[in-house]
Amino acid sequence: MSIRGSASNLGQAVKDLTVEWKETRTHWRDLKSLEFERKYLEDLPHYVARATTVIEELDGLLRKVRAACE
User: Fold this and answer.
1) Which end of the chain has fewer CB atoms within 10 angstroms, the N or the C?
2) How far apart are CA 4 and CA 70, in angstroms?
3) In 7-28, which positions are buried (b, 16+ CB within 10 angstroms) versus exposed (e)?
4) How far apart are the C-alpha atoms of 48 and 67, rounded to whole Å?
5) Which residues contact 7 (CB under 8 A, 6 or more apart)?
């Protein structure tokens, strides 16, 4: 799998998690669920976006290294 494929998988995993969390929230609605959401899920899309940017930068660097070695 390529490094870009990993970034794509990460993005899809967050989308899947979001869908599952919405389903979970229909059954789990208390202070602990809100705490969990705030602590673990609220900022997750932001972190994934940042990670994806870094992964793309790494992919570019690796391409340059490979080209320089050939």
Assistant:
1) C
2) 21
3) beeeeeebeebeeebeeeeeee
4) 28
5) 51, 52, 55, 56, 59
Residues in Cβ contact with 14 at an 8 Å cutoff, skipping those fewer than 6 apart: 44, 45, 48
Q: How many residues does the chain have?
A: 70
What three-state secondary structure class fits 64?
Answer: helix
Tell me what percent of the residues of the chain surpass a pLDDT of 70: 99
Dihedral Cα 25, 31, 34, 38, nearest 10 deg: -160
Side-chain-facing half-sphere of 18: CA atoms under 13 Å = 11
Residue type, 64: K
Please state the pTM of the whole predicted model. Answer: 0.77
The residue to which tokens 């669920």 are assigned = 33
